[in-house]
Design a protein that fits this description.
60 residues; six-stranded mixed beta sheet; 65% strand
Length: 60
Protein backbone atom coordinates (compact mmCIF):
# COMPACT_ATOMS: atom_id res chain seq x y z
CA UNK A 1 0.00 0.00 0.00
CA UNK A 2 1.32 3.44 -0.93
CA UNK A 3 0.44 6.18 1.56
CA UNK A 4 1.48 9.82 1.31
CA UNK A 5 1.89 12.92 3.43
CA UNK A 6 0.33 16.15 2.13
CA UNK A 7 2.20 19.42 2.72
CA UNK A 8 1.46 23.10 2.08
CA UNK A 9 3.74 24.38 -0.68
CA UNK A 10 4.05 27.79 1.00
CA UNK A 11 5.16 26.21 4.30
CA UNK A 12 7.23 23.08 3.51
CA UNK A 13 7.20 21.91 7.16
CA UNK A 14 3.42 22.33 7.45
CA UNK A 15 1.69 18.96 7.21
CA UNK A 16 -1.92 19.03 6.04
CA UNK A 17 -2.51 15.29 6.54
CA UNK A 18 -0.48 12.12 7.00
CA UNK A 19 -1.21 8.60 5.73
CA UNK A 20 -3.22 9.90 2.76
CA UNK A 21 -4.68 7.02 0.77
CA UNK A 22 -7.10 8.91 -1.49
CA UNK A 23 -7.20 12.36 -3.14
CA UNK A 24 -10.32 13.77 -4.78
CA UNK A 25 -10.35 17.05 -6.71
CA UNK A 26 -13.49 19.00 -7.53
CA UNK A 27 -12.75 22.43 -8.95
CA UNK A 28 -10.45 24.14 -6.45
CA UNK A 29 -11.42 21.85 -3.54
CA UNK A 30 -9.10 18.97 -2.67
CA UNK A 31 -10.39 16.27 -0.34
CA UNK A 32 -7.77 14.10 1.32
CA UNK A 33 -8.74 10.80 2.94
CA UNK A 34 -6.39 8.93 5.25
CA UNK A 35 -6.01 5.21 5.79
CA UNK A 36 -8.64 5.08 8.57
CA UNK A 37 -11.21 7.10 6.60
CA UNK A 38 -10.81 10.57 8.15
CA UNK A 39 -11.13 13.37 5.58
CA UNK A 40 -9.91 16.92 5.27
CA UNK A 41 -10.88 19.35 2.51
CA UNK A 42 -8.66 22.28 1.52
CA UNK A 43 -9.01 24.94 -1.12
CA UNK A 44 -6.13 25.04 -3.58
CA UNK A 45 -4.34 23.22 -6.37
CA UNK A 46 -2.02 20.24 -6.45
CA UNK A 47 1.52 21.32 -7.27
CA UNK A 48 3.31 17.96 -7.15
CA UNK A 49 2.72 14.31 -6.32
CA UNK A 50 5.63 11.90 -5.71
CA UNK A 51 4.06 8.47 -5.36
CA UNK A 52 7.36 6.69 -4.77
CA UNK A 53 8.41 9.15 -2.06
CA UNK A 54 4.93 9.47 -0.57
CA UNK A 55 4.76 13.27 -0.91
CA UNK A 56 1.92 15.51 -2.06
CA UNK A 57 2.45 19.29 -2.26
CA UNK A 58 -0.62 21.53 -2.38
CA UNK A 59 -0.84 25.27 -3.11
CA UNK A 60 -3.38 26.47 -0.54
Amino acid sequence: MCLSTAYKTSEPDSIIMEYVSKIEVEGNLITLTDVIGDTKTVEGTIKMVDLTGGVVKINC
